[in-house]
Amino acid sequence: MKLFKRVSVLLCVTLIIGILGVGCQKKEDKKEKEVSQEVSKEASEESKENKDASEDKKPVTLTFVSWNEVGYEYLTEINNVSEAYKKEYPNVTIKVEQIQPTEYDNTMKIRNSANQLPDVFLVRASNLLTYKDIMVPLNDLEATKNNNIATDCALDGNVIGIPQGSFNEFVYYRKDIFEKYDLDIPRTWDEFVDTAKTIKEKGEYIPLLLGGKDSWTTYPFNEYMPLLEANDGKYLNVMASKDEPFTEGEPFYTAYTKIKNLYDSEVCGDDPLGYGWDQQKAMFLAGQGAMLAAGQWFAQEYDTMGGKKEEELGIFILPVNDSKEQPLNVITTAEGFMGTPKTSKHIEESKEFINWFFMSDYYKEYIDYTQQLSTMKGVSADIPFFNEAFEDIDLEYVVYDAGNEEYKRIADTISFDMKGMGQEMLSGKDLEKMMGDMNKKWKAARNK
């Protein structure tokens, strides 16, 4: 099954002129030349008027903040977004800031509390509800109307952010290690665990690099696997309607049992809680580990570190299924919702910039570089590296939903943290006790 269906629009203008005599031909040519010159003149005058109008405006500086390291590199070094934007809006300067992914959410919450949010910033899908009441609605933008996902993520009828891209989740593996041990691509959960155990038995490499010192690195397992087990991207909303969603037989329990078995196999190294994401990346680049679970975004990050993904890496979808006869579920996530807060002193200019970002050629170039899937109608990303993961596989796409308000209320009440639970499981905490305790807390929170 193919992930990407390329949609191309070919605008072809064919001029057919009958041979009706040389004099007639010259007359038509002259007429067409005059029309062409007139259209060109009007377009030039219109462009000049727009530019002159922009130049007459007061100089404005917009702050734009994100966590995407690869995106920051493109925005500031590869194709400076401020310089590109000034070609159409000479009075506007875009000041780009990047905050480390591990610090981003907390930093933005602090800025929000101090009413110091930037003019434009990215909101994670899981935090859309947090910012629902402080963001400017973007319903009227052409970029919103031409986005495939934005309106589906509207809150109370308002689009508060337009997703920069979407991506799937993969397991990246080093080709040299798999070839050395003659390993096949695993297609079931048991095969995946057995593959990791085989590598461990050889004693040369860490089978699965996890970087558990940073809790967020467990998300492909602890956050996404319950949704994959349920084959429902909105399963967190279903959880909110149950008193004891952590009971045996429920998707959460089934997924966490599988994860616990993986962690207990000690295939993540002697001390998976002793190193974090940055160390994990460096170890993978150095060939010290065989596999790493991460989103589509990691591919470009690997090259940025000095790797050569096409030569060194292969990818496959994390096989949560129990049988090869079952379709393989894969998470699809929309991320990086670009919006502007009501506290911005330049709301209209911020909206203009957001609209330009998605509606200009810059967007296509940006997603090609960051290796994301396009969220805009009629725009396809050039990402051939990922095609091998989808060849000859029956797939079910599970579109991630971070949960509704009812789920958020319960989760906030009990400080529910799936990624943090991953760290606890890595430390050896008893799974049955964890599930029992979570059922009690969840039920009590619902009954409130």
Automatic annotation (TrEMBL):
The organism's superkingdom is given as: Bacteria
Answer whether the UniProt record assigns the keyword Transmembrane helix to this protein.
no
| Ranges in coiled-coil conformation | none
- For the region Disordered, give the residue spans: 30-55
Alphabetized PROSITE patterns for the sequence? PROKAR_LIPOPROTEIN
Keywords for the protein's UniProt record, in alphabetical order:
Cell membrane, Lipoprotein, Membrane, Palmitate, Signal
The protein depicted here goes by the name: Uncharacterized protein
